[in-house]
């Protein structure tokens, strides 16, 4: 078995080491004897989505997002088809915002891909801190770091998780990110997947099932250390007990 991972615009969208997520995808496949090919697409490169199983769209500053949006609009239709065809996407922060309709800053409105029915508006106070989520997708919490000026309004979309500690989509809604088909779009920056091996395996398994059929499953890895690190962060930011699979209601 083999998965091909497209890393979109690492020359522009790679804040706080979002590239580490690619390493995590690759290593967790290779440790299981599954081949991994990573194709970086620099801004302006043509992209054949039919050849891809997973797409990573990282975060960027407002300036970089403005540049990248022109390239993204060129590939909009193919990217949209990939998502509707259950292609796996991890979109982080600026990448998350760009999947939506627009990102309105104090200076201009950056047009997004309109793959998700979400909008983002900038406010001067940045939302910066460590964050812990309960996601209905997992028995284990998701931990990370957020740093964004944009507030993202997700309308009827299903959030990635409920904020247990931290700020999330708007700092007020109590929710973080979006899950749509096989897309996880989130503000959690940097090494999201190394810090959350369960999220990495979820995305890998989705991609393998799409390509090789529903019976494919991932064999377990000796990743007790990674899970212990995750638990350490959960314990550090809360003395409350983690609630398993909390029901997440749709919200505006
Ligand atoms: N420029 C966007 C914001 O500040 C996204 C930043 C990022 O990717 N960290 O909201």
From TrEMBL:
This enzyme's EC code(s): 6.3.5.13, 3.5.1.2
Active site: 93, 189
InterPro entries with a match to the protein in the record: Class_I_gatase-like (IPR029062), CobQ_GATase1 (IPR033949), GATase_3 (IPR011698), Lipid_II_synth_GatD (IPR043702)
Quaternary structure annotation from Swiss-Prot or TrEMBL: Forms a heterodimer with MurT.
UniProt family annotation: Belongs to the CobB/CobQ family. GatD subfamily.
Biological role: The lipid II isoglutaminyl synthase complex catalyzes the formation of alpha-D-isoglutamine in the cell wall lipid II stem peptide. The GatD subunit catalyzes the hydrolysis of glutamine to glutamate and ammonia. The resulting ammonia molecule is channeled to the active site of MurT.
Name of the protein: Lipid II isoglutaminyl synthase (glutamine-hydrolyzing) subunit GatD
Organism listed in the record: Faecalicatena acetigenes
């Amino acid at each position: 078995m083999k998965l091909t991972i497209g890393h979109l615009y690492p020359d522009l969208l790679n804040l706080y080491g979002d590239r580490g997520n690619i390493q995590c995808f690759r290593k967790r496949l290779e440790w299981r004897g599954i081949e991994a090919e990573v194709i970086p697409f620099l801004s302006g490169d043509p992209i054949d989505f039919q050849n891809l199983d997973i797409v990573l769209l990282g975060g960027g500053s407002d300036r970089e997002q403005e540049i990248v949006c022109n390239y993204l609009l060129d590939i909009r239709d193919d990217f949209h088809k990939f998502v509707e065809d259950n292609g796996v996407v991890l979109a982080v922060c600026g990448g998350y915002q760009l999947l939506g309709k627009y990102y309105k800053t104090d200076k201009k409105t950056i047009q997004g891909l309109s793959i998700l029915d979400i909008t983002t508006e900038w406010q001067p106070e940045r939302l910066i801190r460590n964050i812990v989520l309960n996601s209905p997708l997992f028995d284990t919490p998701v931990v990370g770091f957020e740093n964004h000026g944009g507030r993202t309004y997700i309308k009827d979309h299903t959030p990635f998780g409920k904020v247990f500690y931290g700020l999330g989509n708007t700092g007020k809604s109590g929710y973080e990110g979006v899950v749509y088909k096989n897309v996880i779009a989130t503000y959690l920056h940097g090494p999201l997947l190394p810090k959350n091996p369960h999220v990495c395996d979820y995305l890998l398994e989705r991609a393998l099932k799409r390509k090789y059929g529903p019976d494919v499953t991932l064999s377990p890895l000796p990743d007790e250390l990674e899970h212990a690190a995750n638990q350490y962060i959960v314990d550090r930011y809360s003395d409350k007990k983690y609630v398993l699979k909390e029901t997440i209601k749709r919200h505006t």
